[in-house]
Design brief:
Length: 129
């Protein structure tokens, strides 16, 4: 079974190229409030986009993670890594969303500060799930 089964999925593109990662979308009050709290650590290839959001914490987290702060237009403003359970806290002025995923995911996907990510409707067949 998929992680966060009740949340909608989105696809991510970097410079028009789809990224091989499944992203759950937390855009409602309660899904944003919960985020990754109490959830098992995310495995590579999975993430959570929290929108709107400009700051996160790692209270009640069960593993390290990486946070990618995005402007409203999808530009990567900041990558915070690693954020450790109970210690991590990160804020980014001007961010409109935060993407949380496994530590090292940004580097492995070629995501860096200044790049622009676009999200699209999730297509399970195209994304191999």
């Amino acid at each position: 079974m998929s992680f966060f089964p009740r949340l909608p999925r989105i696809g991510l593109e970097l410079q028009g190229k789809p990224l091989p990662i499944e992203i759950a979308l937390a855009d409602g009050f309660f899904s944003r409030l919960r985020g990754l709290m109490f959830a098992p650590p995310l495995s590579p290839g999975r993430g959570l986009l929290i929108a709107p959001c400009h700051g996160i914490h790692a209270l009640f987290m069960r593993g390290e993670f990486e946070a990618v702060f995005l402007a409203k237009d999808g530009q990567v403003l900041k990558i915070a890594t690693p954020l450790r359970p109970w210690r991590g806290l990160s804020v980014c002025r001007g961010a409109g969303a935060v993407l949380e995923w496994a530590v090292g995911e940004a580097a492995s996907l070629g995501v860096r500060e200044g790049a622009r990510l676009e999200w699209t409707k999730w297509n399970e067949q195209e994304n191999g799930r």
